[in-house]
Amino acid sequence: MSKKPIYILAIESSCDDTSAAIICNDKVLSNCVANQKIHAAYGGVVPELASRAHQQNIVPVVAQAIQKANINKKDVNAIAFTRGPGLMGSLLVGTSFAKSLSLALGVPLLDINHMQGHVLAHFIAAENCPKPMFPFLCLTISGGHTQIVKVTDYFEMEVLGETIDDAVGEAFDKSAKILNLPYPGGPLIDKYAQLGNPKAYSFTKPKVGPLDFSFSGLKTAILYFVQKMEKENPSFVEENLYDLCASIQDTIVTILMDKLKNAVAATGIKEVAIAGGVSANSEIRKRLKSTEKTLGWTSYIPKFEYTTDNAAMIGIAGYYKYLNNVYSDVDVSANARWKVDQ
Ligand code: KG4
Ligand code: ZN
Q1: pLDDT tens, position by position, 281-324
Q2: Domain for residue 331, yes or no?
Q3: For residue 64, how far is its CA from the centre of ligand 1 (angstroms)?
Q4: Do 188 and 292 fall within a single domain?
Q5: Mutate which of 31, 35, 172 to test ligand 1's pocket (most atoms within 8 Å of Cβ)?
Q6: Are both 175 and 281 inside the same structural domain?
Q7: For residues 17-54, b (16+ Cβ closer than 10 Å) or e, as one string?
Q8: What CATH number is attached to the domain comprising 288?
């Protein structure tokens, strides 16, 4: 592998965060994220507003990433960008910007699959974070996806199972909405769950294939349960918020862990990673660590800043493409439905 420092400027704009990063080989020099607060008022991401905010944010975020990394833009060896999957309007902003920058600087363009970026975030050099060995399993859990992926090489990924309806992040966010919590509710459920009893309420788990997921029934079960309880006591949610959060989180994390155990049993692979926004959840992190001890797995948990959407993960994926001279054409177009194993 090349010893020469390779600088990649990476851009991520697939959903509602505008992010730019500079990485030098596998080290992150800067990773700037502009969150779009505007969506909270609507209880979810509004695609048209997201693309407009990306247009406003992208120039300052890229400038900030270059400044923070303390490099000159002439040092950049290649531009990596998220080509998909994601919201088309959002992807178009990052794609057009990356193409223009690559033409202006005269450097290659690297098109990155967002889901591969989440998985490859494990290869960012970080203290106390060893890199997974191939083959490994990755539970990729975010606001848009829920997948168990078998990773045999940097860009060789096979989906073993995935959700047939809602993503797990949606399950967290929609449950939070039922509890009158603002969007995105996942981190708040996590926070309040620490103060509640995870066994206070039980919700039935979905019956789908051993490696597949389904979360839409759980959301409906929670909604009906809350509506029933509020008929008897209108302050039910307020008075029992911590127990409700703990019980919902316990149900979701138990489903995720059961599926991971099924995947390990089916493949015999005991190298297990988690990735994506929901891998920031404290309970899944705890549960993975304890299962590692009881079942003899080696587990990989990403650093907190590389869980939710960020450009550093696009940069590291770009670095491995660059090393293999896998460049993208300048007429490449965004692909909102690009699959991780395509
Ligand atoms: O990967 P990500 O930033 O965006 C997508 O690609 O979708 O994931 C965002 C999702 C949201 O649904 C958010 O509620 C969830 O990750 N999330 C969490 C936590 N932090 C973020 N869910 C549960 N617990 C958390 N601590
Ligand atoms: Zn994501």
Answers
A1: 999 999 999 999 999 999 999 999 999 999 999 999 999 999 99
A2: no
A3: 24
A4: yes
A5: 172
A6: yes
A7: bbbbbbbbbbebbbbbbbbbeebeeeeebbeebbbbbb
A8: 3.30.420.40
284, 285, 273: which is closest to 313 by C-alpha? 273
- For range 200-224, the mean pLDDT: 95
Evaluate whether residue 197 is within a structural domain: yes
Q: Is residue 337 part of a domain?
A: no
* Claim: this prediction has a pTM higher than 0.85: yes
Statement to judge: residues 190 and 257 lie in one domain: yes
Q: How many whole angstroms from 169 Cα to the centroid of ligand 1?
A: 5
Rounded to whole angstroms, the Cα distance separating 316 from 110 reads 11
In the chain the beta strands, taken as DSSP E runs, fall at: 7-12, 17-24, 27-35, 78-84, 109-113, 136-141, 146-153, 156-162, 271-275, 298-300
CA torsion, ordered 323, 325, 326, 329, to nearest 10 deg: 140
**Looking at ligand 1, which residue's alpha carbon is closest to its atom 10?**
143
Residues 189 and 113 reside in one and the same domain: no
As a whole number, mean pLDDT of residues 238-260 equals 98
Whole-number Cα distances in Å, 301 to 30, 114, 126, 235, 242: 21, 18, 11, 38, 26
Domain that holds residue 249: 131-301
Overall domain count for the chain: 2
> Residue 19: CB within 6 Å of ligand 1?
no
